[in-house]
Specification:
6 strands; globular; 60s Ribosomal Protein L30, Chain: A; alpha+beta; 127 residues
């Protein structure tokens, strides 16, 4: 196992890694819409927050020489399922070609820092 850490994504807000590579896969912890430099939440609208989450995911993937094309599983946590369509519109800008990852989207009662969206991912390190 190898811990993955980059300054280009927000630091973990608890006792966990940004990502861990193991067994040919990269397991990326749930990413919040936080600015990596300041740690402050970016945007009040769901689309702004979702874009920032994807920027953070990309930074962690790139640290392991991966990209969105290598992602095989995504879990989307939403504060409100009413945001599902808007999140999908942003999601499709990052995942739209090739084999799309398996995915689950769930509504939760609360997310860290009271954000509206959190996304975790699993990527295949061998493409």
């Amino acid at each position: 196992m190898v811990q993955v850490k980059t300054a280009n994504a927000p630091a973990a807000v608890g006792p966990y890694s940004q990502a861990v590579s193991a067994g040919g896969f990269l397991f990326v912890s749930g990413q919040l819409p936080a600015d990596p430099a300041t740690g402050k939440i970016v945007g009040s609208e769901i689309t702004e927050q979702t874009h920032q989450v994807f920027h953070n995911l990309r930074a962690i993937l790139q640290e392991s020489r991966c990209d969105f094309k290598d992602v095989v599983k995504v879990t989307v946590f939403l504060k409100s399922m009413n945001d599902f369509n808007q999140v999908n519109e942003v999601y499709a800008q990052y995942f739209s070609q090739g084999i799309l990852p398996a995915r689950a989207a769930v509504e939760v009662s609360r997310l860290p820092k009271d954000v509206s969206v959190e996304i975790e991912a699993v990527a295949c390190l061998n493409g």
